[in-house]
Design goal:
Layout lengths: L1 H12 L3 H4 L12 H14 L5 H7 L12 H29 L3 H14 L17 H10 L5 E2 L4 H7 L2 E2 L4 E6 L5 H14 L3 E6 L4 H13 L3 H5 L6 H14 L3 E6 H4 L3 E2 H11 L3 E5 L4 E2 L7 H19 L3 E6 L20 H5 L2 E8 L2 E9 L7 E7 L4 E4 L10 H9 L7 E2 L1
Parallel strand pairs: 3-9, 3-10, 4-5, 4-7, 6-8, 7-9
Antiparallel strand pairs: 1-2, 10-11, 11-12, 12-13, 13-14
């Protein structure tokens, strides 16, 4: 009945915008597809809805009825009607696959159905030059930094990129093996937890226990090798730390590992992780240790699919996602790092809001900010690092990032200085 009501509304009001502005297609009129197509083609050809006489002569059996319901009601019911039909069709397909023993195909249909089910299409764009409600958000940002950004745990990085954007961040740390990518990621994760956030950490290689030992080292500065190898000389210090740590950190870090899942996580697993644990921010170690929901044929296609799905996940859940990716061995003509050096596919770098290349030599970790959507691209920061004790110390040197006057004001506004040392 709702399809009939909407067609009558269109015909009697001769309002073609009911179709054009709400993206109504023949899929919404399963019982009246010929009638809809006639109206649609008439609008395209003659720029008007056909009158009742013209339409009635073409479809003499069509039932003309009087409609008093509001447009909003009719649209809501039309969307609901289509969703119901789509769900029934999807469930029938899934049932048939399960009965045939094809569970993998059933799961694929279930995942793809999320992209098919319709929502309210009556979307109104915002006038940027007339609607300045964003000014109120700006005022709010000047008052409460933590509502919009998460500090990274490094004063210099915060001054450079402004912290992780709580609604729109998809950052990637890129480096070759054994350059400290995972260590840096964990330091970022701990900082988020110290700010009171519920943090998720996916680890595709290490066990949760080893992740825990590394976090313990960052918090306590107890030797990580002593913890891993069971050295008794740190027993008393470690016991004291375990008793005090829960009171030290306002938030929490929830760890999901590949061995818990029995395989590398898919982005759908990460989405379930976010929703189940109600995460505020997610860290992913790493792209190459994720599996492709879409079952791409080549390694490059799989990596591109994963990158796209992570981007969609970030947009959907509105939380920062910070990932690690491998760096390939190609080089640029000028010797500088670029997005083409992200392993597997440069789609990862293109999808990211921030890309940080990492290198380490003689205990000096260099961070090169190759892409920063809302900050200074091309800046470099250096730190003396001791991973065994969990120490990072900023090293000002020629070519390193220096604060502009506006950034110095930003630093002072949020009281982010701490003498340059981050522990």
């Amino acid at each position: 009945m709702i399809q009939l009501q909407m067609l009558n509304k269109i015909l009697t009001t001769k309002d073609s915008s009911l179709i054009t502005e709400n993206n109504l297609t023949a899929d919404y009129f399963s019982d009246y597809q010929q009638e809809y197509n006639y109206i649609y083609n008439h609008i395209n050809n003659y720029n008007t809805v056909p009158d009742l006489t013209t339409f009635g002569s073409k479809f003499p059996d069509f039932q003309f009825i009087h409609v008093e319901e509001s447009t909003k009601y009719l649209l809501d019911e039309l969307y609901r009607d289509k969703n119901t039909r789509d769900l029934v069709s999807t469930f029938n397909k899934i049932r048939d696959c399960i009965n045939a023993g094809n569970t993998e195909k059933a799961m694929q249909i279930f995942r793809e159905s999320n992209e098919v089910i319709s929502g309210d299409k009556n979307i109104k764009p915002i006038s940027i030059l007339k609607d300045f409600t964003r000014y109120n958000e700006y005022i709010d940002r000047t008052k409460d930094f933590s509502k919009y950004f998460v500090k990274t745990g490094f004063t210099e990085i915060d001054n450079l990129i402004g912290g992780w954007d709580r609604l729109e961040e998809l950052a990637t740390i890129v480096g070759r093996p054994n350059t400290g990518k995972s260590q840096l990621l964990m330091k970022f994760a701990l900082s988020a937890a110290e700010q009171g956030l519920n943090v998720g950490f996916y680890e595709g290689e290490m066990t949760a226990t080893k992740v825990g030992y590394r976090i313990d080292t960052f918090l306590s500065h107890i030797s990580n090798s002593a913890l891993i190898h069971g050295n008794e000389r740190v027993k008393l210090d470690y016991k004291k730390y375990t008793e005090e740590a829960p009171q030290k950190v306002k938030g929490d870090i929830k760890v999901l590992t590949a061995d818990m899942l029995g395989n590398f996580a898919k982005v759908s697993d990460l989405r379930a992780f976010i929703e189940r644990e109600k995460l505020d921010i997610l860290f992913v170690d790493q792209h190459s240790l994720l599996d492709d929901d879409r079952k791409g044929k080549s390694a490059m296609e799989k990596a591109a699919n994963i990158s796209r799905d992570l981007k969609n996940l970030q947009v959907l859940k509105h939380i920062p996602i910070i990932s690690v990716s491998q760096q390939n061995r190609t080089s640029t003509d000028d010797g500088n790092q670029s997005l083409t050096q992200v392993a597997q596919t440069d789609k990862i770098g293109q999808d990211s809001t921030c890309v940080i290349f990492i290198d380490i030599k003689d205990n000096i970790m260099k961070l090169n900010f190759v892409k920063v959507r809302d900050g200074a691209k091309g800046a470099t920061l250096s730190y003396v690092v001791n991973f065994d004790t969990g120490d990072f110390r900023y090293v000002p040197e020629e070519g390193n990032f220096e604060l502009s006057d506006s950034q110095k004001d930003y630093e002072n506004r949020y009281d982010m200085t701490d003498g340059g040392e981050v522990y």
